[in-house]
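Obj: model holo form, ligand = NAP.
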Amino acid sequence: MTPLQATNDQSSTPAAPESLHIAVIGAGKAGTAIARSLLESGYRVSLSASGNPARLELMIDFVTPGAEPKWTHDAVADADIVVLALPLHRLKTIDPALLAGRVVIDTMNYWPPVDGEIPAFAAGDRPSSEVVQEMFPGAAVVKTFSHTGYHHLEPDRRPAGHPERRGLAVAGEDSAAVALVSALVDRIGYDPVPVDSLAGTAFLQPGGPAFGARLTAAELRELAGATAPVA
Ligand SMILES: NC(=O)c1ccc[n+]([C@@H]2O[C@H](COP(=O)([O-])OP(=O)(O)OC[C@H]3O[C@@H](n4cnc5c(N)ncnc54)[C@H](OP(=O)(O)O)[C@@H]3O)[C@@H](O)[C@H]2O)c1
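Output (holo structure tokens):
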């Protein structure tokens, strides 16, 4: 059974978005922008940060109304999809067992001024999401959202077919998980550009040509095809 099939009966018929629960771990700039986009698209969303969810209540009332504040372990236990939107240097605080069997969206970038020196990421010989997948072997890690700025995520949302619609890469090893996350990306207002491996995601990272570039799907596809996995 793939991690996707282990989630709430999504193996045959795609669930209606309102019945999908997305747990967003990290309630900062990226996490709240993603949470709002999901809420506006009809998903059920919970938000957690590093401490007591009671501390998030006031912020949520103003910033992401409709999201449910939760402890991380409670949010994940009840979720169909988990979004990791915390700084990479904090990832080691998440128990791999918690994410086993889950579809996990990796929005994170390695950013030394914030993250410090983390040898596994600083080595630069593999894209960061490959390292994240290795840290969470039981999860189906899907990289998306990472190459757009939080401040562009919401203003750039467009309905399907709109001439100014932009693309978001959706990369992972588990094709069913990539398909599930692609449907989510489409629903929130972007053309998903599936990439069938995490090894080929260096072009999305800081310093890569897609990072912060606000590209169309066609432009992203060209970069995805042109970019070989990091040697
Ligand atoms: N900013 C962007 O434009 C952008 C765009 C794409 C991707 N990203 C990626 O998104 C991630 C977050 O960036 P950000 O700019 O949103 O950072 P941020 O504004 O500093 O927010 C970080 C959030 O993570 C939470 N957090 C920290 N440790 C945690 C833990 N152990 N468990 C649960 N939550 C935890 C923090 O909660 P506490 O305050 O309670 O510690 C805070 O809510 C980074 O990996 C970044 O590379 C950012």
